[in-house]
Amino acid sequence: MIGEALGCQIDPGTKARTPSVITHPFEANPEELEIPTDLLERGRIPVVMEAISLLSNDQGLQVPLVAGIEGPADLASYLCGIRYFLKMTVKKPEIAKDIIEKCIDACIICANSYLHSGADAVVMADALSSPEMMGPDAFRKIVKPSLIRFNENIRGHSILHICGETDSIILDILECGFSAVSIEENVEDLKYIIDSAHRNNTAVIGKISTVDTLYRKVPEDVRKEAFRCLDANIDILAPGCGLAPETPLKNIQSMVEARDEYVEKRFRFKRYNDNKN
User: Fold this and answer.
1) Which of 101, 130, 227, 265 is the most buried (most CB within 10 A)?
2) For the whole model, what pTM was predicted?
3) Contact 229/259 with Cβ under 8 angstroms?
4) Stretch(es) of the chain classified as CATH 3.20.20.210
5) Residue 20 pLDDT more than 80?
6) Is 251 or 13 the better-scoring residue by pLDDT?
């Protein structure tokens, strides 16, 4: 969304294929990247702001309204090309950091506009910040300072999703000031992540497998995995990453139903113990 507003051409995808970025306008001259003063008037950002406003004014809406934005590393890769940007994090880290800082400026502008339009929270997805892509050291030196600045300058709740095994950077993530962190199913030590987050007063979201369970399996498998997540003390049950196109609706419904069933069982158990005592 922000990448498009800054000049990237987008393949809109199909019902069976997700959208993708097909041009990188600053690949040849990354130093020319500047955030325009009319950013909020570009691309589809005005449409998103209007949609948020309409939904926030819907008195019948009974769910949180969460708006999504690209994270700074993802945005940098859209603008400069993923290979070129990752090489810069190694060979020209100061240039890479400068690009990240400009990208976070755009993220702050969009996040505040969405929150002002009525969103309850903003979720930032930053797949390239994964230790499996950028590496923990580069994340700490190049991306982490920008995420801290993001949360110092937005006016509302924020959520961060980084793909992959984020165990090695989870403590750094928790120092960035997000209200919640979203994790995938392949993190190595779920208990460590949840305990660390809760000590930091940060909620944990996840982590039902999107490709394996939600896309390929049946509702009963979804129910079992949902219960395992909730037993592990996940705060908000959710898919571990973006849903694959053509994910069966019955599996998504099963996830919601499992959450409701789990909450009801815990309520009954608590009521039984209260009456017993």
Assistant:
1) 130
2) 0.92
3) no
4) 2-182
5) yes
6) 251
Q: How many residues does the chain have?
A: 277
CB burial class (10 A; 0-12, 13-18, 19+) of residue 275? exposed
CB 10 within 8 A of CB 4: yes
Nearest CA among 79, 66, 73 for reference residue 10: 79
Rounded to a whole number of angstroms, the CA Rg of the chain reads 20
CATH topology of domain 2-182: TIM Barrel (3.20.20)
Token output for 253:
């419904």
Strands (E), the chain: 10-11, 20-21, 66-70, 121-125, 157-161, 180-182, 203-208, 236-239
Give the span between the Cα atoms of 257 and 250, in whole angstroms. Answer: 10
Predicted confidence band of residue 18 (pLDDT cuts 50, 70, 90): confident
Q: What are the beta bridge partners of residue 4?
A: none
Mean pLDDT of 182-205: 94
198 alpha-carbon distance from chain centroid? 19
